[in-house]
Amino acid sequence: MSLVTFPSPLERLQGAQFVNIFEHATGARTWSRPVADAEDLLLMSQRIIGQTEAQRIFAREATRQGIPDQLPKATPDFVARLERELGGSVGAATAHAMIGQLTGGSGVSVEDLIAVADEAAQILEYSNRLEAKSAEQEATARALRDANAKLTALSIQKDAFLSQISHELRTPMTSIRSFSEILRDDDLTGEDRNRYAGIILDESIRLSRLLDDLLDLSVLENGQVVLRPQTGRLSALLDRAIAAAGLHERNLTIQRDRDAEDIEITADLDRLVQVFINLISNAAKYCDAKKPALTIRVSRTKGQHRIDFLDNGIGIAAQNQELIFEKFSRLADESKAGGAGLGLAICREIMHRLQGDITYLRGTSGTAFRVTLPVMSAPVVS
Question: Which among 90, 198, 233, 359 is placed 20 to 30 Å from 277, CA to CA?
């Protein structure tokens, strides 16, 4: 096989340990005699630095020697210049040793081999660092893309919120103004006067509720809320929440296990009921099943109380599950929503202040939220 195949530069270098075993390179690395074949030098150069770059170097040297369109002569000056070019890719020691075997102008000493090994190790180490850096940059770029996508979605939601909040504020204000003018200017019967006054009252309450939500969220986010720890029965808290959720106007069936709910909870109970009211009200508004039902399931694990709220609707789309707890987000079609998309954001802030959490449960049928609280642990007053 050695007679029918051309040895690679590395094979030539390895073979030199046996052929030139008594020759050693001492003194300065210079080339004194042009023994090499230009074709061999070109072939080796192409393998190291690529065909295009190697041919460019040889064409430039041929022009310098006055023999364009031909291979240049392997003069000592050209061999030295070629060694420097190759040294930028494989290291000076490696380039000198490889060219030395082709030209026959230099043996390979132990010092040469050590230098070649050192350069190979350095190149390998540098390559490994580049790979690690590349992987790190790719991870950073991926994280930045994810963050940018979320920021874009939040920006869109914020724009939608500004539009929605303007509408939510303008509508009750317009009603209050219009019916106030009617009451002032028109001669109305007692029945009409009472009806218009009732509309003004309802719109005022609606406006106050919206402003309260905005103020409440701002206070919670800034840590200015003062919590009032109390101890109460979970079943009683859920009774309060269901009564306040206004379910008499909704066709929602609630399924509970009162034995599991017979536990004591230590927290700011009013704030906790506020979270329960929001989750029950959302189920009543958005559950689109023919017979809407909400199951409240209570369990305890790892020092925590878990209160799950699961309805039998179609659930929340996967692309929206990461955003539902953000400010200004809307759970469903705007035509169904009565607020400005602040409810779940307020719930999250409350639960964090209570040293608990609220999460969306994936992989369940319908919409499912989990509220967690530490067992018999009073929250930090802030």
Answer: 198
Helices (H), 224-380: 234-244, 269-286, 343-353
> How confident is the model over 322-368, as pLDDT tens digits?
788 877 666 555 444 455 677 888 899 999 989 999 999 987 888 99
Helices (H) and strands (E) in the chain, counts: 10, 7
- Separation of alpha carbons 342 and 348, rounded Å: 10
Residue 283: closest CA among 323, 319, 255: 255
The lowest-confidence range among 18-22, 208-212, 221-225, 348-352 is 18-22
Strands 264-267 and 304-311: unpaired
Nearest in space to 256 (alpha carbons), one of 268, 238, 276: 238
Distance (Å, rounded) from C-alpha 159 to C-alpha 185? 39
φ, ψ of residue 293 to 5 degrees: the values are -145, 145
Do 248 and 284 form a contact (C-beta atoms < 8 A)?
A: no
> Rounded distance, CA 357 to CA 272, Å?
11
**Residue 287 dihedral angles phi and psi, to the nearest 5°:** -65, 120
Taking the C-alpha atoms of residue 128 and residue 113, their distance in angstroms, rounded to an integer, is 22
* Res. 24: pLDDT tops 60: no
CA–CA distance, 30 with 35 (Å, rounded to integer): 13
Query: What is the rounded distance in angstroms from the CA atom of residue 42 to the CA atom of residue 157?
Result: 63
| 166's tokens | 């303007």
Calculate mean pLDDT across residues 160-186: 77
**Calpha distance 197→382 (Å, rounded):** 41
